[in-house]
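Deliverable D2.4 — example input (structure tokens):
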């Protein structure tokens, strides 16, 4: 079956793909999205258990306040709706609990810095210097701050220096280091290997505007689809791509799907893992196509993936034991050197992240739904890689249950009695992610986002196939915001990025102005 030709064909429907599609459709391009699964969204997927809605990946995000980067992007695309999101607590939205102390991040640097200085009065200079550098660094990212700076200019971005190299000269206090390194468990990169700029954007975005998703990430995905379809685009599900056929002129000639579909377009954007995208390449006769140099091929083969995640999705029998407008990070040690110690499945995890599944529970709610996440490498489940979802043996289920109980024990240290309140739970492993999202090695964050894979060394949007572009968290940064920003970079190669950045900048200023009630007339004239 040959489908009508489009301007742009997009493989996958995670947030980077949907952002690309919405932006291109808004600019008049005819766009078609091909998704292998039964519904769009990628890691925005949510699912229902025990009468509750749980998110697979979109637990919370940042920079969502009026005028802030993520809010501006979603508003620009016609996707943003206030009822999609729930603001987290202004005070102590992220709570970090360690065996012998506790700290928290609050929204806004005017709250955050005094709060941390009160906790660490002898480290006031280090705290102020660290967050001053965070704020200065993020201003150098054009797709985050919407400036006309070239994306190839990495000066000042901190992508070539590690988080540890910034923190270690500032303080020798292990407790303060624990706090400044705490978000490493979110992205899974060691402080010695995490690019400071990448960590700074994640930190800054949450401090400026941390929000949860109200009612699950599926609603956000549906809002994207509505925006795409309103501009004439298509989002097709159950369309697993099996081949991209490339001609002798190094152009993708057609994209084939498992159900026999044949699709053609001027441009193809792969919103899937780069390794998966390159495995789809064929020549026009259907044989494997490899346009890459031996050096690049070896690099791709050896690129490290981010750490796998084990999830527990539970419901209690009574009211929330923790505030649903806060997230909780539970650490096994107050020594930052141990955060990423190698574990076995029978050990207590070094860090556990707890978030509410329902950010706005009813006052009459008798149950509390929440999720727990901890590191869980796919190697722990290698014995069952060849098994099918829903058909895996009892040994796999037993291993899942044992590790879930270890996670509960880690949390019980800080929330005594929580396990006894849990009525039911289910769990997920990297094999679950492999089944539903096709992520390489079942990882949640794509490539390992170390200095070696970021900045000038990153796998960027362009490829050796002239009309094939890449997008997604493996090409930039992980998370909803990082993947959406990667789409701006990718689509810029088709429609030009500078006008888009300028429009985003003006819209952001307008929204911030309206939020603060200044009613700037210039903005009203341009956007009224």
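Example output (designed residues):
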């Amino acid at each position: 079956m040959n489908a009508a030709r489009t301007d742009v064909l997009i493989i996958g429907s995670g947030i980077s793909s949907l952002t690309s599609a919405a932006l291109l459709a808004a600019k008049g391009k005819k766009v078609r999205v091909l998704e292998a699964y039964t519904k769009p969204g990628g890691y925005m997927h949510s699912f229902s258990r025990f009468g509750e809605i749980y998110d697979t990946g979109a637990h919370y995000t940042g920079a969502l306040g009026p005028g802030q980067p993520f809010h501006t992007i979603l508003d620009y695309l016609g996707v943003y709706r206030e009822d999609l999101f729930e603001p987290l607590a202004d005070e102590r939205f992220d709570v970090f609990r360690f065996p012998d102390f506790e700290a928290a991040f609050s929204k806004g640097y005017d709250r955050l810095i005094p709060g941390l200085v009160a906790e660490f009065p002898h480290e006031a200079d280090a705290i102020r210097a660290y967050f001053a550098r965070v704020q200065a660094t993020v201003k150098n990212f054009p797709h985050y701050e919407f400036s006309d700076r070239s994306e190839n200019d990495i000066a000042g971005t901190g992508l070539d220096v590690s988080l540890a190299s910034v923190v270690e000269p500032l303080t020798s206090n292990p407790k303060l280091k624990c706090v400044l390194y705490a978000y490493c468990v979110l992205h899974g990169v060691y402080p010695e290997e995490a690019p400071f700029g990448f960590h700074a954007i994640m930190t800054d975005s949450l401090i400026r505007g941390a929000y949860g998703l109200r009612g699950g990430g599926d609603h956000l995905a549906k809002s994207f689809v509505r925006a795409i379809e309103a501009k004439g685009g298509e989002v097709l599900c159950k369309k697993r791509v099996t081949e991209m056929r490339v001609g002798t002129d190094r152009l993708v000639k057609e994209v084939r799907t498992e159900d026999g579909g044949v699709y053609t377009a001027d441009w193809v954007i792969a919103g899937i893992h780069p390794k998966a995208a390159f495995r789809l390449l064929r020549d026009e006769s259907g044989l494997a196509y490899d346009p890459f140099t031996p050096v690049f091929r070896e690099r791709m083969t050896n690129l490290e993936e981010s750490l796998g995640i084990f999830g527990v999705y539970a419901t209690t029998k009574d009211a929330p034991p923790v505030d649903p407008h806060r997230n909780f990070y539970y650490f096994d040690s107050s020594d930052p050197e141990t955060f990423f110690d190698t574990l076995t499945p029978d050990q207590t995890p070094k860090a556990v992240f707890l978030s509410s599944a329902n950010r706005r529970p009813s006052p009459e709610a008798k149950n509390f739904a929440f999720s727990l996440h901890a590191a869980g490498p796919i190697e722990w489940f290698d014995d069952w890689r060849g098994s099918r979802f829903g058909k895996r043996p009892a040994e796999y289920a037993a291993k899942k249950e044992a590790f879930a109980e270890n996670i509960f024990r880690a949390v019980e240290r800080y929330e005594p009695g929580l396990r006894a309140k849990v009525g039911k739970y289910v769990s997920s492993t990297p094999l679950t992610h492999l089944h539903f999202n096709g992520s390489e090695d079942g990882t949640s964050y794509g490539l390992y986002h170390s200095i070696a894979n970021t900045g000038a060394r990153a796998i960027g949007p362009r490829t050796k196939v002239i009309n094939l572009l890449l997008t997604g968290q493996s090409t930039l940064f992980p998370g909803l915001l990082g993947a959406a920003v990667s789409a701006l970079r990718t689509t810029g190669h088709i429609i030009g990025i500078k006008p888009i950045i300028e429009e985003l900048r003006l819209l952001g200023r307008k929204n911030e102005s309206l939020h603060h009630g200044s009613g700037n007339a210039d903005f009203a004239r341009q956007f009224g």
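The radius of gyration is 23 Å.
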